[in-house]
């Protein structure tokens, strides 16, 4: 069982002909609403890739909560540890997507995600654990401390965090920008470190040395929202299953690439059979 400690959002997505520059208004966009949040995305991604998953998180007591939880519920993620908090709104991500390149800009309104506390995991048995930085660091520390198995932390969005959190992890995942922010701390904490490189794939490091590199299959990019969360979940699932670093990374970049072929974060998350059909020749 993987326990994901993370954010639950409703994504409000505007897909238009270009991303706006500062002070610029871009018209002609299409509006869509999708369930999202890095924690929820990674929980559903791991579930679709074959893991048993429970999610620890919070939503508001509002009309957006059911919409934000809909695909998690239908997808078989255990939501018994998700709190509905009076006086808070469900988290919202405002996303602008370039219809040509699939690139995006995101502004997050955390809402109920910021009310999670260490007490929320105090009595919860945790085997494997995944966490993201869209919820308070103290609850991630408490969950990682309780975990008896593999601990995977997606250090996104980049922020100041204690060394203790890094040293508790078996796997840290970041993109190139986040890797620059954390610098040498990533490579000296003892964890496996996965750096995603977008269309170029990803690299896996151990103690500062590259141990695996993988390039994704060529796909028609529609929307990159959720690709990073898919990559992180897939790599975590593969390593828990005992795949080698090379095979795990190849599996993860393939899953991430497939997530780019459909719009929306959670609607685009791939099924295990589809990833296996491409990664390592289905082996």
UniProtKB/TrEMBL annotation:
Entry keywords, A to Z: ATP-binding, Carbohydrate metabolism, Cytoplasm, Kinase, Magnesium, Metal-binding, Nucleotide-binding, Potassium, Transferase
Residues annotated for ATP binding in this entry: 175, 196-201, 228-229
Domain Carbohydrate kinase PfkB residues, every copy: 2-271
Gene Ontology cellular component terms for the protein in this record: cytosol
PROSITE patterns referenced in this protein's UniProt entry, alphabetically: PFKB_KINASES_2 (PS00584)
Regulation: Activated by a monovalent cation that binds near, but not in, the active site. The most likely occupant of the site in vivo is potassium. Ion binding induces a conformational change that may alter substrate affinity.
Subcellular localization: Cytoplasm
Cofactor note: Requires a divalent cation, most likely magnesium in vivo, as an electrophilic catalyst to aid phosphoryl group transfer. It is the chelate of the metal and the nucleotide that is the actual substrate.
N-terminal signal peptide: none
Binding-site residues for substrate, renumbered to this chain: 9-11, 37-41, 134, 229
Pathway: Carbohydrate metabolism; D-ribose degradation; D-ribose 5-phosphate from beta-D-ribopyranose: step 2/2
Classification via InterPro entries: Carboh/pur_kinase_PfkB_CS, PfkB_dom, Ribo/fructo_kinase, Ribokinase, Ribokinase-like
Binding site for K(+): 223, 225, 259, 262, 264, 268
Reaction catalysed by this enzyme: D-ribose + ATP = D-ribose 5-phosphate + ADP + H(+)
Enzyme nomenclature, EC number: 2.7.1.15
Cofactor(s) the record lists: Mg(2+)
Keyword Transmembrane: no
Family: Belongs to the carbohydrate kinase pfkB family. Belongs to the carbohydrate kinase PfkB family. Ribokinase subfamily.
Function recorded in the entry: Catalyzes the phosphorylation of ribose at O-5 in a reaction requiring ATP and magnesium. The resulting D-ribose-5-phosphate can then be used either for sythesis of nucleotides, histidine, and tryptophan, or as a component of the pentose phosphate pathway.
Name of the protein described by the UniProt record: Ribokinase
Record lineage: Bacteria, Pseudomonadati, Pseudomonadota, Alphaproteobacteria, Hyphomonadales
